[in-house]
Amino acid sequence: MSIEIITTSDGSHSLLNTALNETYHSKHGALQESVHVFIKEGLDYFLQGKSQKNISILEIGFGTGLNALLTLQRALELPNNIYYTSLETFPVPEEIWSRLNYIDSVGLKEKFNQLHEAAWNEEVSITSNFNLRKLKTSLQQINFFSEFDLIYFDAFAPNKQPEMWEIEVLQKVVDAMRTNGVFVTYCAKGQLKRDLKSLGLEVETLPGPPGKKEMVRAVKKKIMER
């Protein structure tokens, strides 16, 4: 896989997969996209009105580690314990991730390094309330059942990686969610929304981050009989 660092409109870095001609984040701003989609409309939304101590998150696509870093940053302000599982088939090499500039805005340089240096396929405690489990596998190769409160679906776009958006794969995601679990993604394609609704989720189209009109959030209100 050939990747190179690019600078997005908010000054934060992203990566360009040159084989797919696809960026890891919005060119309009990597940092502001991740904050808006996954933290504001994902984690913060899930936390509203809830008192549960432990929160389990599944991220599809560890990538640059930005979503994990922002979640860790938020966890430092929370009383909750975050159990963060992330899938990645092609880990970004150190010579790339070590040059990313997220710490210029977020800080937490040591923690960012720890996120990337954490061993694969085992649970690692990054802070007293943030536990990381990076799995070097694809979603197609693994099964979960009612394990996660929150899904960060951050795969490459449907026109670049269509196999990640097929209804059979989305079914695996829904199976992985607990009742009242929340799914968020930057994508707002009509087919995605129709598929999520057909799988029993309550789907919302929300304003997107700067430069993007819309995003999707969906909630699993009940277990569907299959």
Write the layout of secondary structure elements.
Elements: E1 3-7, E2 13-17, E3 22-23, H1 30-47, E4 54-60, H2 66-75, E5 81-87, H3 94-97, H4 102-106, H5 109-117, E6 123-127, E7 130-135, E8 148-153, H6 167-176, E9 177-185, H7 190-198, E10 201-207, E11 214-220
Helix pairs in contact: 1-2
Verbal overview:
- With 226 residues, this protein is of the alpha/beta class.
- It has one domain (30-220): Rossmann fold, CATH 3.40.50.
- The protein contains seven helices and eleven strands.
- It has helices at 30-47, 66-75, 94-97, 102-106, 109-117, 167-176, 190-198; strands at residues 3-7, 13-17, 22-23, 54-60, 81-87, 123-127, 130-135, 148-153, 177-185, 201-207, 214-220.
- Strands 6-7-5-4-8-9-11-10 form an eight-stranded mixed β-sheet, with helices on both faces. Strands 1-2-3 form a three-stranded antiparallel β-sheet, with no helix packed on it.
- A hairpin with a 4-residue loop joins strand 2 (13-17) and strand 3.
- The protein is globular, with a radius of gyration of 16 Å.
- It starts with a strand and ends in a 6-residue tail after the last strand.
Which terms summarize this structure?
226 residues; alpha/beta; Rossmann fold; 3-stranded antiparallel beta sheet
Quick check: average pLDDT? 94
Q: Give Rg in angstroms.
A: 16 Å
Ends apart, CA distance between termini = 38 Å
Based on helices, strands and strand pairing, what is the structural class? Answer: alpha/beta
| Overall tally of domains | 1
- Helices and strands, in N-to-C order? EEEHEHEHHHEEEHEHEE
Regions with pLDDT < 50 over 5+ consecutive residues? none
Beta fraction of the residues? 25-35%
Total of DSSP H or I helical runs spanning 4+ residues = 7
Shape: globular
- The CATH superfamily turns out to be Vaccinia Virus protein VP39
Read across the widest sheet, the strand sequence of neighbours is: 6-7-5-4-8-9-11-10
The beta-strand count equals 11
CATH domain class: Alpha Beta
Return the CATH topology: Rossmann fold
What CATH architecture label applies?
Answer: 3-Layer(aba) Sandwich
Largest sheet: 8 strands, mixed
The helix content is 25-40%
